[in-house]
Amino acid sequence: MRCKERQSIIKMFYRFNKVKKILILSFILVFVNFSIFSEFSVVVFKIDANNQNRKTNLAINNAIFTFIKELKDYKVIDKRDTILPKDEKSQNKILEKYNYIFSGKILAVKNGIKLELILKDSSDDVTRTIHKVYSNSNLILLDSRVLVSSLFDMSVKLANIEEFPNEEVKEKLEKEFLPITDLASLSGTWIGEDGLKRIEIMRDAKALALILSGGIIRLNLSIDDGYLCINQIGPPLYRQFKGLPDIVAKKTAKLGKTPTWKFKISPDNKTLSGIKTDIEVKHDNVNIISSKFIKKLVTWHKK
Predict the structure, then answer these.
(1) Is this prediction's pTM over 0.70?
(2) How far apart are CA 43 and CA 22, in angstroms?
(3) Torsions phi, psi of 177, nearest 5?
């Protein structure tokens, strides 16, 4: 009798384990399916650039598509071989399948080249647009990541991003400072920017910026149309965001938005002056309420 009871208990145990495994497997499948189907999708159409040559048009489209994929919050559907249909009926059909439609256009304007990016939302029929005027197409490749990031960040209240804070700043840079033609001549130690202890520019078009509160950020240098253009390499560090509570600074760093600089040089080659584009956040000491990119005049002095 005891033997039979033992066998019965063993069978019940195995049955229980089998049911348990089935339940766990079912839960995993439901969770995976939910994750897959809850992912937002964006269909990316070709940026219309009839006034640009084919090679430039292709480079801009590829760069912006890469910037969208870097966001990693969306399932990206590539339709770069097609321009978005202009009629609303066709667009609404697309929005029945996808959460967002991305499109854009490039126009020749008086001051240079105007890049306009457009994001249409299926949930509330809201269309977000942002544009910026660049002096040439190379600057679009260097700088348009900022526009893409702002367009997709729903917490950013969009405003058209101008190249300079105002005309006075632009005129001052044009009159008092000279174009930069040689990166090697800039090598050395530079100081003067709030929040940075110093910047070490090297001869290989790279630089290191030492943050006052600790940490080092790596920078990439290039020259475009007489301007020294500087971009941060890698993700931002929370110590970059001076004046923010640590918890807010860490959340700001997770947004992944890095600064850029655009300089001209003084006649004596000892002062770099120009525009820094950086993120500004509003917060409640714990959470980020909103974020936007701002431009400000900055100056570096050679030590």
Answers:
(1) no
(2) 37
(3) -125, 155
40-152 is a CATH 3.30.160 domain: yes
Is 59 in a helix, a strand, or coil? Answer: helix
CA distance to 37, 218, 261, 276, per residue, from 249 (Å): 32, 19, 21, 19
Average pLDDT of the segment spanning 61-81:
89
Q: Using CA atoms, how far apart are residues 106 and 117, in angstroms rounded to an integer?
A: 9
Give the DSSP H/E element, type plus range, for residue 274. strand 271-283
- The number of beta carbons lying within 10 Å of the beta carbon of residue 4 is 8
* Extents of the domains making up the chain: 40-152, 167-302
pLDDT one-digit tens code per residue, 8-49: 555 554 554 555 555 555 555 444 443 444 468 899 999 988
Contacts of 69 (CB under 8 A, 6+ apart): 76
Q: Residues 141-182: pLDDT tens digits? A: 877 888 888 788 765 555 445 555 566 777 778 788 999 999
Architecture per CATH, 167-302: Beta Barrel (2.40)
Partners of 117 in beta bridges: 104, 130
Distance CA 161, CA 157 (A): 12
